[in-house]
C-alpha cells in the first residue's frame, strides 16, 4: 500500500494552529472547572499554630467563567478551522499514479492494445508495459484505505494500491459470455488490506477500506489516472 504524506508550509501552519487550539481548550476547561486553594490555620493542644494550603474540590466557577467560555469558543473555532482547511487541502491534493493509452483494432473488434505506465508519488515513470486486452473498455482497479479526518492534520493521504487491469464489453451479452483478460498488478490487494478490512484493532485509525475502479473506452487517447482521498479518476492527458 502507498500512503502519501503531504507535508509543507500549509500543514505546518495548520499543525501549530491545532496545538494552539488544544492549549486554549485545556486552559478554558481548567478555568471553568478548576479547584481553588485556601490557607487554613490549626492549633495543637500546646498552643502551637500551623498553616497549610488546602485544595478544595473542583466546582463550576460561573463568576470567572465568562473568559473561560470565550476561550473555549475560540479553541473550538480554531480546531474546526484546522480540520476544514486540511480536509480541503487533502481533497484537492490529488496524486497522478498512472497513464493509460488503449487502441482498438479495426480488423479485430472487441480487442485492444493497451500501454500502462506506472508513476511514483512525484509523477515520474517507474515502468511501462503493453497488454493485449479483450473488450471495448479498459478498467483499472485499486484498493483504498481511508483514514479519519483528524489524521488529515498530519497531511496523511488515503492509502492506495493499484491491483488489477482488465477489459469489459459495451454489450451486456458479450460481457457475460466472452473471454476476459485480467492482469494482476503489484501482487493484488495483498495481506495488509485484508488484515485491515473489518479489523476492530485498526478501526480508530481507519475510516473505511474498499475497492475502486475507473474505466474509459479504447479510443487511442491517453488518460492520466489520479487518486483522490476517495478513489481513482481519469483525465485526458494534455500532452
How would you describe this protein?
The protein has 239 residues and is an alpha+beta fold. It folds into 2 domains: 9-91; 95-236, no CATH class. The chain has 4 helices and 11 strands. It has a 5-stranded antiparallel β-sheet, with no helix packed on it. Strands 8-7-6-9 form a 4-stranded antiparallel β-sheet, with no helix packed on it. A two-stranded antiparallel ribbon has the order 1-2. A hairpin with a 5-residue loop joins β1 and β2. α1 runs antiparallel to α2 (65-92). The protein is elongated. The two termini are 29 Å apart. The model has no long low-confidence stretch (mean pLDDT 77).
Name the helicity range.
25-40%
The major pleated sheet works out as: 5 strands, antiparallel
Shape: elongated
Query: How many extended strands?
Result: 11
- Terminal-residue CA separation: 29 Å
Overall tally of domains: 2
Strand order of the largest sheet: 5-4-3-10-11
Structural class: alpha+beta
**In angstroms, what is the radius of gyration?**
29 Å
Could you report the average pLDDT, rounded to the nearest whole number?
Answer: 77
* Unreliable stretches covering 5 or more consecutive residues: none
Question: TL;DR?
Answer:
This protein has 239 residues and is α+β, with helices and mostly antiparallel strands.
Give keywords.
alpha+beta; 2 domains; 4 helices; 11 strands; elongated; 5-stranded antiparallel β-sheet
